[in-house]
């Protein structure tokens, strides 16, 4: 599992260890993970791994070491991620690459190393933590949405590719959860802003104020993710939170209206078919 020293990842680690599962937990800082777990948690079945997810070699070694220690992989959880709030034109080349390095390249590094193991085992489960913003986009969240939409696309394709090997894939789509996600040191902001998007600046303030008051309970969120994996079956997308469900429903309705509006014109670009 990736991104484990805080938030949903940390809660998953705690609950899995409490269940008696063995957990290989990657983080940018194993010290931070162990400090966050504290003395009250039995860490004898924990394998903490300090990994830079952007580095393919480090990721590959982490997966190999995990397989050596545990004898295989049951569940692979891509959880690491962070928010970024800015207008499209305010987002720099570096900021785009940094986000995609974590949310797309990093996930791909994990999958490239882990999927062959699951395929050879003829079984396993990949859990990719996306967001409702992997389904619908709102102003200010373009870069985050770009990363999560990409994660949704690759996950959907992966699910179809590995189904015949007995490997299951779940895309988790949380709404606002009360983790550190919106904390000042987690939510990333652009190096430079313009005067043209006062609505987005207001949104940043409102989101920072929302920290600690989000609707979603990470304890219940982690439990729900574990339940889905243990059940071994369920829909591809695991929507978490009533806010997420409402946003996703509105997106699907808007998409259907868009399809209806183009139903007559779409076939106009086809070559004629022989009748
Ligand atoms: N909370 C929400 O409202 C919400 C809503 C929808 C989706 N999500 C998604 O849920 C997942 C977990 O987030 P969370 O809510 O638990 O937030 P969080 O409390 O801020 O934790 C995020 C985790 O991701 C890792 N991470 C953050 N930035 C990273 C970077 N630049 N490189 C590598 N790892 C990084 C961190 O791992 P280490 O520090 O241990 O390396 C951290 O444990 C994310 O993918 C997030 O996008 C959250």
UniProtKB/TrEMBL annotation:
Enzyme superclass (EC): oxidoreductase
- Pfam families annotated for this entry? adh_short
Stored InterPro entries = NAD(P)-bd_dom_sf, Sc_DH/Rdtase_CS, SDR_fam, SDR_oxidoreductase
Q: What is its EC number?
A: 1.1.-.-
The protein's matches in Gene3D superfamilies, at most eight in alphabetical order, are given as:
NAD(P)-binding Rossmann-like Domain
The molecular function terms of the Gene Ontology recorded here are:
oxidoreductase activity
- Residue ranges that the Swiss-Prot or TrEMBL entry lists as coiled coil: none
Alphabetic keyword roster: Oxidoreductase
Entry superkingdom: Bacteria
Similarity comment: family membership? Belongs to the short-chain dehydrogenases/reductases (SDR) family.
* The protein, known as: SDR family oxidoreductase
